[in-house]
Amino acid sequence: MADVLSVGVNLEAFAQAISAIQALRSSVSRVFDCLKDGMRNKETLEGREKAFIAHFQDNLHSVNRDLNELERLSNLVGKPSENHPLHNSGLLSLDPVQDKTPLYSQLLQAYKWSNKLQYHAGLASGLLNQQSLKRSANQMGVSAKRRPKAQPTTLVLPPQYVDDVISRIDRMFPEMSIHLSRPNGTSAMLLVTLGKVLKVIVVMRSLFIDRTIVKGYNENVYAEDGKLDIWSKSNYQVFQKVTDHATTALLHYQLPQMPDVVVRSFMTWLRSYIKLFQAPCQRCGKFLQDGLPPTWRDFRTLEAFHDTCRQ
Amino acid sequence: MRPFLLEGGSVSQMPVAEGKSVQQTVELLTRKLEMLGAEKQGTFCVDCETYHTAASTLGSQGQAGKLMYVMHNSEYPLSCFALFENGPCLVADTNFDVLMVKLKGFFQSAKASKIETRGTRYQYCDFLVKVGTVTMGPSARGISVEVEYGPCVVASDCWSLLLEFLQSFLGSHTPGAPTVFGNRHDAVYSPADTMVQYMELFNKIRKQQQVPVAGIR
């Protein structure tokens, strides 16, 4: 039989394998039938036992034989799916009712789409890495894979050093008071009060500024539990706008090797808001535009502009 | 909080010259505000009652009885304000009214002295604008315009900014800087400062009434 069945015509081998399975199933059920029926009536007890054992042995032998036959056939059938590029899912193409279940064509489209996505994502990641907005010294991507646990050294500065930098900045600007607290572990939180104009909550990670919220001088900056409320925004549109600009400033001022310079530059920039309500726009010369004062401060010249007047 | 009052007189003089009533002027103002993009936010009311020092408590030295003004503002519904002209401003709970009844022997309410302003509250960005009709008894006497710029707590800091805003809907009829923050340069603005301005406005309007009366006599 093995000569007749070549690997190429394994459809026939399939048919034979299926009938071999059927044979195996029937012989197995015969074994259980025999066990169920128990010993048949014979004259002597000895004769009864002998007949039962012989019958049981015969049945087991036939099971063994059928199983061997099935194993032999299964080798002939082989593993056709392994040759297919889509592995087992390629078998979906064998489905004859394409119109009702167009799974295979959908699958191919999804596969093409995800391939393209991966390609474009790769290109985008390459481009973005050239103009990185990351403020920490180590670049993500390849190096991150190489040493996933390594922290950049600027992130593990001792708290004492952070305290020193902040208190030096505090002394630099008399109209600005900085209150440092550490409510959650080693990360510092600053409450900056600028004259009688505004209050800023600054969330630090070592000497990096992670988040800032700007609120009015008369607004509550504490949550119900007495900690600084770093999530809720100001009720006033003007301070919501300033918060947006301050977040932009965080991304603008970056110098990974000298984080203390970054904090100082940011605070110098922030200090220019002391004239938030008193400085007219340097471009249009007016105070108000759409009901808002000039909320933008140039990063270099610190001049006041409306959001839409800046260049 | 940072309210400012326009001198009601200077605003209402404009329409009088053109032959318009107080009501028409208020409508003109609110229409201008709505065109600017301000949104209506309910109504407001500020009232003021005058009290004399009772004659029995005055000494024989001939000292003049002081006037005391008891005021309410719907913006601060749980408070009652008691002010002397050029004097201190007391901020108390609304129970203060009951206390004044008990103090009849010392302070007597002046007859028909109640003056109040009622109108609509408008919100435009961080600005709160209240345009009200000032009434004394049955008749309308003038218009009050209050502008509050919430984000700024020091009055003199944002005066130029407020002036620009006022010009956008009042045109050339903008007032001079209120006297309240001329003397205290960087003090934080309080509700009492608003009430002092309303008291001064009401007094001015009362005097305007008295002048023509005297002329007739």
TrEMBL record, chain A:
Keywords: Nucleus, Transcription, Transcription regulation
A Pfam family hit: Med27
An example Gene Ontology CC term for this record: core mediator complex
UniProt keyword Nucleus present: yes
Alphabetical GO biological process terms: regulation of transcription by RNA polymerase II; somatic stem cell population maintenance
Keyword set includes Transferase: no
InterPro entries assigned to the protein according to its UniProt record, in alphabetical order: Mediator_Med27
Subcellular location: Nucleus
Molecular function terms from GO: transcription coactivator activity
Protein family membership: Belongs to the Mediator complex subunit 27 family.
Subunit and partners: Component of the Mediator complex, which is composed of MED1, MED4, MED6, MED7, MED8, MED9, MED10, MED11, MED12, MED13, MED13L, MED14, MED15, MED16, MED17, MED18, MED19, MED20, MED21, MED22, MED23, MED24, MED25, MED26, MED27, MED29, MED30, MED31, CCNC, CDK8 and CDC2L6/CDK11. The MED12, MED13, CCNC and CDK8 subunits form a distinct module termed the CDK8 module. Mediator containing the CDK8 module is less active than Mediator lacking this module in supporting transcriptional activation.
Name this polypeptide is given: Mediator of RNA polymerase II transcription subunit 27
Source organism of the structure: Delphinapterus leucas
TrEMBL record, chain B:
One function term, GO molecular function aspect: transcription coactivator activity
Recorded GO CC terms: core mediator complex; mediator complex
Domain of life: Eukaryota
Annotated compartments: Nucleus
Keywords, comma-separated and alphabetical: Activator, Nucleus, Transcription, Transcription regulation
Subcellular location, principal: nucleus
Assembly and interaction partners: Component of the Mediator complex, which is composed of MED1, MED4, MED6, MED7, MED8, MED9, MED10, MED11, MED12, MED13, MED13L, MED14, MED15, MED16, MED17, MED18, MED19, MED20, MED21, MED22, MED23, MED24, MED25, MED26, MED27, MED29, MED30, MED31, CCNC, CDK8 and CDC2L6/CDK11. The MED12, MED13, CCNC and CDK8 subunits form a distinct module termed the CDK8 module. Mediator containing the CDK8 module is less active than Mediator lacking this module in supporting transcriptional activation.
Protein name: Mediator of RNA polymerase II transcription subunit 20
